[in-house]
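Hi R.,

Here's the chain you asked about this morning:
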Amino acid sequence: TNKGKYSLFQLLVTDNFGRGRPVLFAWTRKEFKRDVVWILDCFRQIMEDTSKTESFIMDCAQAEIAAVKLTHRQAHIVLCSFHVCRAFCRKLTM
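And the predicted structure, written out as tokens:
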């Protein structure tokens, strides 16, 4: 989140050599499911086909998880261990 309270949505892909490559950046005012669906639909239009997407690694944001389940039903969702641990620690210290 920046000073304007916009969140950065970043999409990376892994190439055939296992290296991550950033392919999409999008600013969102709110992290709502409809906004993430729109971003993923735009990405699908740009790439013409994202049906072979095997997995998404993401933080534990429910809107992102719901959007991926809607737009890429066949893909596996893997939660990022860093973000899960950070969220867990924040809950412990509340």
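DSSP finds three helices and four strands in the chain.

Let me know if you need anything else.
M.
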